[in-house]
Design goal:
117 residues; alpha+beta; 2 helices
């Protein structure tokens, strides 16, 4: 959809689009849609994404945040076997401050923007 709107898009996926050349440049915007819950080592993965952002870049992440109003054992999102790490609003704040060193906005319980501006 972004390409149809005239944007240049580079795709990467370790399984489906393993084009490592796209990891050798910087980007103004990175979209990580349903990706960060697969990070086995979130610090390393977020540092890598940060290194790919331009000076004023934005990292958009889509995931389900752990809800405050539900017992973790009844939260269905945790049952996906590829989901190995889960995030709470407090986790997002910590990542922004200590790893990415940026501001952040949580748009709803599913979309987070980490902004280097």
């Amino acid at each position: 959809m972004l390409e149809e709107a005239g944007y240049q898009v580079n795709l990467w996926d370790p399984y489906f689009i393993p084009d490592e050349s796209v990891l050798n440049r910087t980007y103004a915007i990175i979209f990580a849609c349903e990706v960060i819950e697969h990070f086995h080592d979130p610090r390393t993965s977020f540092c890598h994404l940060r290194s790919l952002l331009s000076q004023r870049g934005v990292l958009y992440c889509r995931t389900s945040l752990i809800p405050d109003d539900r017992d973790f054992t009844s939260w269905g999102y945790k049952n996906e076997e590829t989901h190995v790490f889960f995030y709470h609003e407090k986790t997002i704040a910590w990542i922004a401050e200590h790893i990415l060193k940026c501001s952040y906005t949580i748009f709803d319980e599913h979309v987070i923007a980490f902004s280097l501006r």
